[in-house]
Amino acid sequence: MKKLLGAIAFASLTSAAIAAQPLVTPDELATLASADQARVIDIRAAQDYAQGHIAGAVSAPYGRWRGPANNPGELPDLNKLTELVQSLGLTEQTHAIVVSSGANDTDFGAAARVYWTLRVLGLENLSILNGGVKAWQAAGKSLSTTPTTVAKSDFEPGINDALLVTQEQLVQATQAQQSVLVDARPNDFFTGRTRHVAARTPGTLQGAVNVEHSIWFKPGTSEVINANEAKTIAARYNLANQNQEIVSFCNTGHWAATNWFVLSELVGDKNVKLYAGSMVDWTQASSALPMDNVPGRFRQIMIDTKIWFDSL
């Protein structure tokens, strides 16, 4: 009997330890998914979910977590998010594991953004399947075509302001040089050689450093590196154990969510915020806000023309 109780206690501790990990492997998820309080959230498109998903996963496509087309990084209204998390049966006791496709490093940003949103809403017991469905299948694990339905919860989330920064707050922080601004975009965006289609001006926030989201991945994969490797890279950019507030941004708070996730959840920086609207929101302000790397008018016309042709 003592051996049995000891085994049960060990299994419980092991499960709790896995549940606390921001990143889980396919094997760990296979163990966790059977727990009563676990909820696997598949954020792929509905048609991909229908073709095959992890057994027991609920469908919540990424678009449902995003803002409007003119400012997709904007955090959706609290009422909308409340309806969404309740429909997924989430409560404060739920261990929510976010699963994306795992197609590439950009895809991970979707999982990180949903993870961040759930944290903003007050949920703490969260994980991401490292490598997504692609890693799950590579590990030899099967998919199901049976849709999962769950009972609606009565969870009433709030907004944790400590994890986000508004345009107004960032203007003040920038003027006072109170924050370390981290641009997660590829270098062409940072240097003003191109812009997002919904942004009005190429360039970056004044004083920002460029830390591309892609540096946090194992070469040639969509899997995030381990915490020790992440700390080494963060130290290279003077981002480990920062005493100042760190603000992660990109075009629409997607790539930036990866930087937020790694710096906050893996490196362990205690004061990392996400500027959800990012450069699209910043450049849509009623009056021009401080920026670096803004090209001249002729170069901007060339960029605008290329974006227009690409849209055709």
Keywords, separated by commas or semicolons:
312 residues; alpha/beta; Oxidized Rhodanese, domain 1; 2 domains; 5-stranded parallel beta sheet; 12 helices; globular; disordered N terminus
Spell out the blueprint of helices and strands.
Elements: H1 2-19, E1 23-24, H2 26-32, E2 38-42, H3 46-51, E3 58-59, H4 78-87, E4 95-99, H5 105-120, E5 126-129, H6 132-138, H7 167-175, E6 179-183, H8 187-190, E7 204-205, E8 209-210, H9 227-236, E9 245-249, H10 255-267, E10 272-274, H11 278-283, E11 291-292, H12 297-311
Parallel strand pairs: 1-5, 2-3, 2-4, 4-5, 6-8, 6-9, 9-10
Antiparallel strand pairs: 7-11
Helix pairs in contact: 5-10, 9-10
